[in-house]
Write a structure and sequence with these properties.
With about 230 residues, this protein is α+β, with helices and mostly antiparallel strands. The protein folds into two domains: about 100 residues, Uncharacterised protein PF11572, DUF3234 (Trna Endonuclease, Chain: A, domain 1, 3-Layer(aba) Sandwich), CATH 3.40.1350.90; about 90 residues, Trna Endonuclease, Chain: A, domain 1 (3-Layer(aba) Sandwich). The chain is about 40% helix and about 25% strand. The longest helix has 23 residues.
């Protein structure tokens, strides 16, 4: 069982989660034995794999925690779909924005994954509420849709809070699609209701893989004041 963290550790954890969700990038150190890690300060026999939201911080500690170190850039998609599940299987903890404090945060990988997913949703709501815009991919046939990774008999609509996030997904089966800007008023009152009527889901700031957030349209709509 993990010991209760101190307030500075909680603050460090929360900053890491916000920065990682906003930038969609995390940094680690890769060496001869895989991702850089250190012995847990709290749990004998367990190891803590270290991550940073700042590349320079990762570079600063690279030689300390790995032999033949290289900086590894991990997308948020890969962090949620591959890296954190692997830590869980290996019974390793995650160390967010590790530094030189006497006691650094040590997080259960599943807990960190849940916090990152919640922050992706919260960040989507905050950015859309501020900009009053949502972005989707569209072509002559209509908006881009996917089969739900959670419920294979349902479709879902991916959408994004930033045009760059949407356009980064253009390619493959979506190569001919374009990003479209939808006013929040129209998204909330038309798009989400259209999905609700069909029993489909919505994926705010959708990411590739099973780490994507999938929620009911009404649940997302309730987060906006329109």
């Amino acid at each position: 069982m993990l010991l209760s963290p101190r307030l500075p550790e909680l603050n460090q954890r929360d900053r890491f989660v916000k920065r990682a969700a906003a930038s969609r990038m995390i940094y680690a150190v890769s060496g001869e034995e895989g991702l850089g890690r250190v012995p847990s300060q709290r749990h004998r026999g367990r190891e803590v794999t270290l991550f940073w939201t700042n590349r320079k911080a990762a570079e600063r500690w690279a030689d300390v925690i790995a032999r033949q170190p290289q900086i590894k850039v991990i997308t948020l998609d890969a962090m949620l779909c591959d890296v954190l599940p692997a830590l869980t299987r290996l019974n390793r903890l995650a160390g967010p924005d590790w530094g030189s404090d006497p006691i650094e945060p040590e997080l259960d990988a599943t807990d960190l994954a849940g916090r990152l997913k919640r922050e992706v949703l919260d960040g989507f709501v905050e950015r859309v509420a501020a900009s009053r815009k949502v972005y989707m991919l569209d072509d002559a046939s209509g908006p881009a849709l996917l089969v739900s990774a959670v419920q294979s008999d349902r479709l879902l609509l991916p959408c994004w809070s930033d045009r760059a996030f949407a356009e980064a997904r253009i390619g493959g089966p979506w190569a001919d699609m374009v990003s479209v800007e939808v006013p929040l008023q129209s998204f909330a009152h038309k798009t989400l209701r259209w999905l609700e009527d069909r029993g489909w889901l919505v994926a705010p700031d959708h990411m590739v893989g099973p780490g994507a957030t999938e929620i009911a349209p009404a649940t997302l709509g309730a987060r906006f004041k329109v």
